[in-house]
Specification:
alpha+beta, 4-stranded mixed sheet, two-stranded antiparallel ribbon, 2 helices, globular
Length: 106
């Protein structure tokens, strides 16, 4: 969905559980889809991606992260810390044990 009617050069990206916005050429604002850094609020290592502790559906979160990465962004901004290192986000998606996430187990 484009935002041209509001004179904003951006588009909304449907990511269940969060909202993501594509702005400029290769920049994504991913809101709460991801977080950055260590400790809540990303006090350390701001560009290191993490899964926020409040994700309700980890499977949908993974799909949404993959959807954002498929747009080949140069930069991903998040609400909690960041901007994130995109190659580290790609690595996290591959290496994170999605099946053992406490958020996945209900």
């Amino acid at each position: 969905m484009g935002l041209e009617d509001y004179d904003v050069d951006a588009r909304l990206i449907h990511t269940p559980g969060s909202i993501s916005v594509g702005v400029q050429d290769k920049t994504i604002i991913a809101e709460d889809l991801l977080a950055g850094g260590n400790i809540i609020g990303g006090i350390e290592k701001h560009s290191r991606p993490t899964i926020p502790p409040f994700q309700e559906d980890i499977v949908e979160s993974k799909k949404s992260i993959e959807k954002v990465l498929a747009l080949n962004p140069d930069t991903i901004h998040v609400c909690h810390s960041g901007p994130l290192n995109v190659p580290l986000v790609r690595k996290m998606v591959k290496e994170f044990d999605w099946s053992k996430s406490r958020k996945h187990l209900k």
